[in-house]
């Protein structure tokens, strides 16, 4: 059997941090191996001079090489197949509480030269564990793919989604969204400049593909799509290989909802009534994955059981279960689909779409029709961040 061996010289492991970095990489690979879009990990060994990480040998070359062999860009259908595979492994990592931190075309390999060869993520040397309610602060990664919040030293799994957006931009257009001659210049562009979709390469692109990329390259990480949400995006709708995974983002949103005021809960409930069926598709998938009972409701146990299906040692190391246990209030009550939607909706993400103004106006109308007490617009805006209402008042 042919294998690939990553050799890590011990001479470079001169600090406790460097040693722990290698141990963490091995732990993550060992925990996550088995996913079809992750390079298979066999084992790790060491002698006096080196650490040897033995993995599956991928003979099809880098994603970057294949992009270049196609003249610098993919067709939309080819790009969809690639992005679905990337999003599958990224969503799996994020559910486990693992952030890759160095996603780029060079870190995805094809298993063979076959046109439809599976794509595998490699190089978890910069990866780390991150609890859903915590932030990392060290600046790591490759300059062209670093998210704005990484440069601000406060980030989570959303930073990976920015990198996925950069990859999608490159695959579809054949150029980078941010460019400069120096690393500091690249960082300035990432922080200050919006990616352009005016080049000739984008003139033949579908509006859905452009919206997909824009949804990932949003400088506000709160408005950026998660990997599971990206798989639900209209651009990928209908692709034969799409399977929507459980999303840790809903756990975070539900926790915030549970501890919210009754006013905020009512406002969110009104806002949900403005959503279209396609917009509700992601929430419906997530609710189904949580396994509601015959009464159509879910409880804390549903959240725990659904997560346990995907549990690995990485999930233990990242303390994801510890976070889920803090959603303790659900233990004493049930939540139907309508309330789940109110709990799991992201107002920040809605604010980032073109139809936000329409949702906000109709949401306020529903809020009044539902018999809620008369309130001033400023009060409603303050509990749900509806900035539009402040402009209308």
From TrEMBL:
Keywords per UniProt: ATP-binding, Kinase, Nucleotide-binding, Serine/threonine-protein kinase, Transferase
Gene Ontology molecular-function annotations: ATP binding; protein serine/threonine kinase activity
ATP-binding among keywords: yes
SMART domains named among the record's database cross-references: S_TKc
InterPro entries from the UniProt entry: CDPK_Ser/Thr_kinases, EF-hand-dom_pair, Kinase-like_dom_sf, Prot_kinase_dom, Ser/Thr_kinase_AS
Family membership noted in the UniProt record: Belongs to the protein kinase superfamily. CAMK Ser/Thr protein kinase family. CaMK subfamily.
Protein name: Protein kinase domain-containing protein
Species whose genome carries this gene: Cuscuta campestris
